[in-house]
Amino acid sequence: MRALQQIGRRTWLAWMAAGTWALWSELAYERGRTGWRIALGGADLATRVAQAQTRDPVHALRVLTDFVSAYVLVRGKDIAIVDTGLPNNGATCAETITTAGLCWEAVGHVLLTHSHPDHVGSMGEVLAAAPQARVYAGAEDIPQIKAPRTITPVTDGEEVFGLRIIATPGHTPGHLSVLDPVGSLLVVGDAMGHLNHRLSGSNPQYTADMAQANQSIKKLAALTFAKAVFGHGDPIDQDASAAVGTLARTL
Ligand SMILES: [Zn+2]
Q1: Distance in Å, CA 38 to ligand 1 centroid
Q2: Do 49 and 67 form a contact (C-beta atoms < 8 A)?
């Protein structure tokens, strides 16, 4: 080991051998237990970590229409929109963007968690207002989405706008959740719901594969994040991953 660098309160980066880097992060679990996450990678690992260190956290602004929420994610002066809500939601998105002191030109990315109509309903309006934005969804859901523009397929572990894509299939085959590691925020989509202060799994009435959906919740429970926002229900503002862990243990 040639160099060990502490890059966060609980994170270390080490240069191991020619071209190989290792990243150690201490994880805090419930009841004071701790564990470690170790990532190995090439030079890009160091670059990605360096980028993450200088990145602003994302702020999620909720665009709530009727029973479904879309999110305007603001990072500095740039925006990614996750889901678009019901049809005719474009003006509400515009108002939300304005409250952030920004305009449609700031919207570079539109991520769709899944193909259901209450999540992709205003995609046409959003893309018309933000002609420069790229649009992304899970490959398995793309055929179900009528889009005025080519949708870029994204898979587990990819990064868009500094957001980590987490494949959470089950609700739909190509369902995605989105994690902002810097802001410790998970955008859940419909992988779970949080209605009436109760965290629950994917709504069985609208779920393609319940067993797979439950597996996806267990996958999310292995991550650490403080905040979570949902397609249906109110945000969780602290200890969100602990709540997901509690739910996962019942599945
Ligand atoms: Zn849905």
Answers
A1: 33
A2: no
